[in-house]
Specification:
The protein is mainly beta. The chain has 4 helices and 19 strands. The chain has 3 domains: 48 residues, no CATH class; 88 residues, no CATH class; 204 residues, Galactose-binding domain-like (Jelly Rolls, Sandwich). The longest helix is centred in the N-terminal third of the chain and has 16 residues. It starts with 23 loop residues before the first helix and ends in a 16-residue tail after the last strand.
Length: 386
């Protein structure tokens, strides 16, 4: 059919001269050409979409798709626009609610979509709660509850106690050389041939970022090689009265985000864990001390644990948050950033920060908040609870 390279239609035959006979070849050729053009995908320049199906039309027009139906959140071919799903759709934030929401694509549009970088905002149609999930380089994150941290920070300064290490009623900044409390809420523990001293108190390391006090641990006897069951940790046990709203151990378990300041002498990979009191559910995370003896702010988000025992209403320990500075292989988690069915003290790659008497482990500004966001470094000191 006679459309040119710019998709402009031109008549295939010359005009018929008035008062002359129309030849059948001209008439049939013209009408057949028009019929073919009308039945073909009409170009955008002619008021069409250039497509023979809806998805190709959306792509050609760079348009969004309305109310796409999602039957499986993990395998759905996401197109920018709105969506809805019935209850029990696989991969949804929970198996009981219906959701509706919006999908965003952080990559060049294609048909079919490549779906390597996607953000999905899904709202529970019953409660109105908004959840977010992202796909980065082809890997989905866990669902997180939007804005939980922001509102929690306004009304309640964290699940932790004494995150700024300001209160020390037991030792009053005296040195501790055995396992136990180093300041209110925080304990130090270790096992191995090393000897440690620990205390809490003031110093210049964190003053410029708003924390005059911190926990300090230093080997007085080094251990250059850690045995398989040797370990070190600074940890806090958080009671169930403070953690019950997280609903851990249920399908509705909420994430937590932890912000903290470190200033270790040895650079490299350090780690921590969140675990239950029964010590049979643990989630290891890692972070890096980039510059020796320099205050650095770290954050980590941990998805809520939907299984295991997390006490509520018993005034007992529900969640333990621990930081390691050396650990043997038996108590080191085989992988980070996933819930495991065992008791672990550290994550993979943990440096041995008790290998020299020059090693120093420093920690302060620990804030444990419900939700997917920790405060940024400039605000971390402003929401500390004593």
């Amino acid at each position: 059919m006679p459309r040119d390279g710019s998709n402009i239609y031109s008549q295939p035959f010359p005009d018929v001269v008035e008062d002359t006979t129309i030849e059948s070849t001209v008439y049939n050729g013209f009408t057949n050409d028009v019929a073919a053009d009308l039945n073909a995908a009409r170009p955008i320049v002619a008021g069409g979409t250039g497509a023979t199906n809806a998805d190709q039309a959306l792509f050609n027009l760079a348009a969004e798709k309305s109310t796409q139906t999602v039957t499986n959140y993990d395998s759905h071919l996401w197109v920018p626009g709105s969506f809805r799903s019935a209850a029990a759709a696989p991969g949804a934030q929970n198996a009981t609610a219906a959701f509706s929401g919006t999908c965003y694509i952080q990559e060049a549009l294609a048909n079919p979509p490549t779906n390597q970088n996607v953000t999905v905002e899904a709202r529970d149609t019953t409660s109105g709660t908004l959840y977010i999930r992202t796909k980065t380089a082809g890997t989905w994150s866990a669902w997180t509850k939007e804005h939980a941290t922001v509102f929690d920070a306004l009304g309640y300064n964290g699940l932790q106690i004494n995150g700024s290490m300001d209160i020390d009623q037991e030792l009053n900044s005296a040195l501790r050389t055995t396992a136990g409390y180093v300041c209110d809420g925080w304990r130090v523990g270790w096992g191995g041939t090393m000897a440690l001293r620990a205390n809490s108190g003031g110093g210049a390391q964190f003053v410029s970022v708003g924390f005059p006090n911190y926990i300090y641990v230093n080997p007085t006897t080094a251990q250059t090689t850690l045995g398989s069951s040797d370990y070190t940790q600074v940890y806090q046990r958080i009671e169930d009265a403070r953690t019950a709203r997280l609903a851990w151990g249920t399908a509705g378990a909420q994430s937590i985000s932890i912000g903290f300041w470190v200033c270790h002498h040895r650079t490299g990979t350090y780690s921590g864990v969140v675990r239950n009191a029964a010590n049979d559910r643990a989630y290891a995370f890692t972070y890096t001390q980039d510059v020796a003896d320099t205050a650095e702010y770290k954050t980590v988000t941990i998805p809520g644990c939907t299984t295991g025992v997390w006490p509520t209403g018993t005034n007992s320990t529900s969640i333990e948050v621990a930081f390691s500075f050396g650990c043997g292989e038996t108590l080191t988690a085989p992988s980070a950033d996933t819930w495991l069915n065992n008791n672990y003290i550290a994550g993979p790659g943990q440096v041995n920060a008790v290998a020299s008497t020059a090693d120093v482990f420093r920690l302060t500004g620990v804030c444990v908040l419900p939700g997917s966001e920790a405060p940024d470094a400039s605000h971390s000191a402003l929401i500390m609870a004593l």
